[in-house]
Write a structure and sequence with these properties.
- Helix content is 40%, strand content 33%.
- With 121 residues, the chain is an alpha/beta fold.
- It has a single domain, classed as 2-Layer Sandwich (Transcription Regulator spoIIAA).
- Helix 1 runs parallel beside helix 2.
- It has a five-stranded mixed β-sheet.
- It is globular.
- The protein starts with a strand and ends in a 5-residue tail after the last helix.
Length: 121
Amino acid sequence: MSHFSVSFDRRTGTPEAPVRVLALRGELDAHTAPDFEAALQACLDDGDARLVADGSGLDYVSSAGLGVFMAFVEPARDGGGDLKIAALPERVFEVFDLLGFPTVFDMHETVEGAVTSFEGA
């Protein structure tokens, strides 16, 4: 059985331009992708379009999980922000890299790097 959780670690950035960090844990697959989708939608509904997906706790990602990232990058950008991906374990990063995600997403080695990359944006 898949296990996955997404938590809203914190809002960071500046009061005028907050950044929402979502901590992803476990396996992001067809069974758990709706949880991630709901979390991203909740952020956008709250007016938070500057998003960082902290993937440091991801053990696995399937095509369904990757599809959630793809579905929300444009709404985040249309809202004046972005959906950035950070801190992926090497084995998970290889999946993203193989499918060309680094050409579409702003990907960072650390959450802090992703958060600070919003400065001046």
